[in-house]
């Protein structure tokens, strides 16, 4: 525990304390307080805003070529520090050490991707109607960005916002996650140590509502990027709209996973079980509603239950552990409430369905069957290690259920039919559809949802667009 750092704010090129009382950090595997994080007050936020304005004036004038070189240096620093960072992440977030390592290395890959995109943010020349007119389109950084990042992926959610914004030439104020602050701070440290100028990146923690209300409404901020729940996202989008601020929203999901009779069932079981219980199910794109065609329903369910029961739950630092604790006691209460509600309506527990021990936030990987559509777990994002498995008869029935909810972030399907695959890509209402593999969240791919799951992308070339203004310059020569 002594290796866990005390986390400070980073404002205007300096690590510093906040003006409010520090917040305690709890290890979710033990319930022990392992450290504190500084808590920003209004004065701290005003200093961060002033620093971001000054930082933008400097950073936006650095060439894309040089921005890319600095970002590549920061990516390598993350790789060099992977063991330290991953240990910190597991202590504060709970996920197994292997997942923390993967997240840290993935964050480095994301920085590298956006570093190269910085050099390719091209404008264009538009052919004019007159020989003496030149028409050019220029991509300019939108300005200082307020980025809000959650606790479930302390690096990989923050890095998408920070790397894309910095690559475009924007300055960023990052509101990091108060429950998992230290690993997020290591992302900032790597960028600072790579030579980022003062004010180009600032890091604050504190009361989320106070910080978002102050930053979003402030005239210095020109762009908002938020990852979190749909209700909070709607509130922040409304606030941003009142001030005509550009917004990217990556919100909640309730992803269907459809397995057809002709699918490679063993493959589907293996991949979907891994995707479902990774990070204890605390993933916005986790499969949650498993729709299995009738002929292979029993076979899939049997294999899925075996896979869930083979998961070793425990402290993420222990050897062999493949699923850690939930982030906090509130998540345990949520799992218990969803399970109790489903059972009260006629649902059955195929495996799991209960807490493990009374120390730490451990919950058994849980599979529910025979759950009616009015159960809470089939309408509210579980955000935990609960899967609901249901049979379906026809393609039309599966699509109807897949599209029933207002969410539209991710969807998964397994089939060996090219015709069915093509139809799925057309008919599923989702920002991302992955067929016969789990192919989401790579830096080069678009990442975002539709409907109540948000709008905009945090991956691929589309992510850069959110950080640019498009300027037309037309000139008679």
Brief digest:
The chain is α/β, with parallel strands linked by helices and 477 residues long. The protein has 14 helices and 20 strands.
Task: Please characterize this protein's 3D structure.
The protein folds into 2 domains: 9-251 and 454-476, Aldehyde Dehydrogenase, Chain A, domain 1 (3-Layer(aba) Sandwich), CATH 3.40.605.10; 255-442, Aldehyde Dehydrogenase, Chain A, domain 2, CATH 3.40.309. Strand 3 and strand 4 (33-39) form a beta hairpin. Helix content is 39%, strand content 21%. The model has no long low-confidence stretch (mean pLDDT 97). Helix 2 (64-80) packs antiparallel against helix 4 (97-118), helix 7 runs parallel beside helix 8 (230-242) and helix 9 packs across helix 10. By secondary structure, the chain is α/β, with parallel strands linked by helices. The radius of gyration is 23 Å and the shape is globular. The protein has a 7-stranded mixed β-sheet with strand order 14-15-16-13-12-17-18, sandwiched between helices. It has a 6-stranded mixed β-sheet with strand order 9-8-7-10-11-19, sandwiched between helices. Strands 5-6-20 form a 3-stranded antiparallel β-sheet, with no helix packed on it.
Set out the fold topology.
Elements: E1 9-11, E2 14-16, E3 20-26, E4 33-39, H1 42-59, H2 64-80, H3 82-93, H4 97-118, E5 124-126, E6 133-141, E7 145-148, H5 156-168, E8 172-175, H6 181-193, E9 201-204, H7 208-217, E10 223-227, H8 230-242, E11 246-250, E12 255-259, H9 265-277, E13 287-293, H10 294-309, H11 329-344, E14 348-351, E15 366-369, E16 386-392, H12 395-402, E17 410-414, H13 418-427, E18 432-435, E19 454-455, H14 460-465, E20 468-476
Parallel strand pairs: 7-8, 7-10, 8-9, 10-11, 12-13, 12-17, 13-16, 15-16, 17-18
Antiparallel strand pairs: 1-2, 3-4, 5-6, 6-20, 11-19, 14-15
Helix pairs in contact: 2-4, 2-5, 2-6, 3-4, 3-6, 4-5, 7-8, 9-10
């Amino acid at each position: 525990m002594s290796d866990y750092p005390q986390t400070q704010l980073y404002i205007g090129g300096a690590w510093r304390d906040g003006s409010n009382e520090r917040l305690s950090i709890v290890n979710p595997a033990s319930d022990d307080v392992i450290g504190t994080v500084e808590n920003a007050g209004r004065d701290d936020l005003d200093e961060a805003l002033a620093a971001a304005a000054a930082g933008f004036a400097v950073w936006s004038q650095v060439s894309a070529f040089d921005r890319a070189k600095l970002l590549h240096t920061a990516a390598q620093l993350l790789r060099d520090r992977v063991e330290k960072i991953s240990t910190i992440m597991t202590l504060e977030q709970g996920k197994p050490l292997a997942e923390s390592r993967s997240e840290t290395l993935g964050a480095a890959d994301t920085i590298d991707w956006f570093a190269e995109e910085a050099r390719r943010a091209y404008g264009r020349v538009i052919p004019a109607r007159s020989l003496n007119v030149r028409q050019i389109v220029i991509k300019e950084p939108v300005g200082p960005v307020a980025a809000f990042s959650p606790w479930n992926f302390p690096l990989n959610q923050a890095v998408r916002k920070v790397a894309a914004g910095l690559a475009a030439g924007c300055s960023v104020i990052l509101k990091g996650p108060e429950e998992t602050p230290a690993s997020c701070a290591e992302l900032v440290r790597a960028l600072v140590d790579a030579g980022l100028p003062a004010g180009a990146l600032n890091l604050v923690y504190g009361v989320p509502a106070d910080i978002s209300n102050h930053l979003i409404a402030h005239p210095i901020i020109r762009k908002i990027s938020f990852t979190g729940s749909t209700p909070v996202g709607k509130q922040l989008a409304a606030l941003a709209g009142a001030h005509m601020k550009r917004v990217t929203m990556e919100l909640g999901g309730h992803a269907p996973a459809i397995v057809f009779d002709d699918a490679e069932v063993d493959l589907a079981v293996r991949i979907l079980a891994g995707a479902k219980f990774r990070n204890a199910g605390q993933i916005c794109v986790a499969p949650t509603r498993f729709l299995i065609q009738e002929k292979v329903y029993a076979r899939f369910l049997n294999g899925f239950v075996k896979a869930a029961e083979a998961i070793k739950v425990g402290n993420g630092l222990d050897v062999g552990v493949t699923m850690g604790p939930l982030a906090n006691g509130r998540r345990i209460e949520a799992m218990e409430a969803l399970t109790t509600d489903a059972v009260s309506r006629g649902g059955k527990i195929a495996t799991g369905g209960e807490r493990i021990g009374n120390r730490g936030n451990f919950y058994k990987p849980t599979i529910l069957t025979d759950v009616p559509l009015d159960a809470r777990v089939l309408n509210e994002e579980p955000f935990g290690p609960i899967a609901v498995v249901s049979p379906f008869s026809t393609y039309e029935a599966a699509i109807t259920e897949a599209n029933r909810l207002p969410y539209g972030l991710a969807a998964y399907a397994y089939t060996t039919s090219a015709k069915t695959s093509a139809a799925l890509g057309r008919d599923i209402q989702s920002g991302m559809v992955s067929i016969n593999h789990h192919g989401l969240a790579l830096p080069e791919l678009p990442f975002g949802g539709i409907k109540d799951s948000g709008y905009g992308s945090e991956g691929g070339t589309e992510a850069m667009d959110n950080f640019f203004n498009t300027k037309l310059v037309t000139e008679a020569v």
